[in-house]
Fold:
Amino acid sequence: MIVHLIGSLHDYETNPEMVEDLRAIANTIHDNDSSLSHNWIEAAIIRHEKNVIIPDWTPYVEDNLAALHQSDVVIIEATPYSFGLGFQMAAALHHQKPVLVVSRERLKYKYISGFVDNLLTYKTYSNRDELARTVSAFLQKNTVHTKDLRFNIMLTRKISKFLDEKTKETGKNRSEVIRDIIKSSDTKRK
Amino acid sequence: MLVHFIGSSKNIATDYPYYRKIIETINERGSVLTRDWIAAAYDENGSTKKDYENNDKINWEEVYTEDCSALERADIAIIEATTYGFQQGFFTSHALRSKKPTLLLFRQDLKNHPLSGIRDRLLTTKEYHTADELEKVVNKFLKDNTISTKDLRFNFFIDRQIYNYLREVSYETGKNKSEIIRDLLEEEIDKKN
Structure:
């Protein structure tokens, strides 16, 4: 499964634990046979340590949003509770991604606690073992098998007739016709 | 024009005069807020009203739902994001995805900050340092995005094929050509939504 991890090193100097928490999440993702859609953490740490100034952040923002789009699920380390985290969370929900929000601080009395969305899961943690368990549970719950899925559907007589006509017209089998229609609808929606 | 304004209570003592200036400027131009959370939560001196003193007593789900509804009703969004808060980031993205022209305001230099990398034709990011500067920036944004509430007259050329089609449909339905075109456009809008 492909996971987009959102975090912030904004408070890097005052909160060095954050780096280890982000690394722990990344390791748990790999331990669950999943991968990061964009492995930005180590590069960001080096930039902070060497005080690298980025003259144009546009490609970084665009890479992040592209990685988010490609992912199956999103994990947000929300302890810094900063602008960038909120910005990407809105994008994740817009793309209908299941989102796990983890934080060392209680979220109960913060604005984020009011977000109403079935795709959202909130968890607080106090140590990395707890964090790893939370991330593992979320990944297992949202696992999307990479193999094709068998899908059964009841067809009405009208639909069956339509599919027969289409197969004759196009030379495609019924499954292909249905898949094409679904894909076309998906393309239009996008 | 309807404006949704987002700020943060994090540094309200410092931010309050600027928030008031933004609201004053909006009102002076004849525009209105879709949700006046400042007046609801703070008195004229910027002190927090009793019901909003404790975060644990606030119904955040209700606040969030009201904010989303207010954004939906608004023509434009103005977000004061000097505190770089989560909520401001969330609503910046939400406003842009809802196709609202959005003004993002800061009292810090954004050069070399990751936020400077957000590119969207509907986004205007501005730095200000004084209330006067703020007033000018907000005024310009409102002026640039003013939508007349009156209907707009629109002229365009049609070819003979379109003319014939409109004439036939007009005859069949009893609607005039303008109504037919407006209906078609509204259908397209509904499909898009």
